[in-house]
Design brief:
2 domains, about 100 residues, 2 strands, two-stranded antiparallel ribbon, globular, alpha+beta, 4 helices
Length: about 100
């Protein structure tokens, strides 16, 4: 399927619908594999810890508000449980999400 067709197809669904791969794994990222091919990757196909740390570093460098950062990660398909690789990150994200009604 070409990108244009995918976009046209996806616009037929409610904006808050979740896109999943055949294995019911939520689509978390896209990868340009070259030769005009884009691969959709699910959570099980990625280095979750590295992805989360990269996002957190981005938010810090770009001076994001903590609530907005956690909201953005949740909107992208990450779950608070995904932070369990690091107790401090898990407690931080859980506290912010709970205090601000994100979960």
């Amino acid at each position: 399927m070409k990108v244009g067709q995918l976009i046209r197809t996806l616009t037929l669904f409610p904006m808050d619908s979740e896109v999943v791969i055949d294995s019911d794994d939520p689509v978390m990222t896209t990868v340009d594999t070259g030769n005009k091919t884009i691969r959709l990757e699910g959570k099980s196909q990625m280095d979750l810890q590295a992805e989360l740390e990269a996002r957190i570093e981005f938010y810090i460098a770009d001076n994001w508000d903590e609530v907005d950062a956690v909201r953005d990660m949740l909107d992208a398909g990450y779950r608070i449980e995904d932070f369990k690789y690091n107790t401090a990150r898990y407690e931080w994200s859980k506290k912010i999400a709970e205090e601000n009604g994100l979960i």
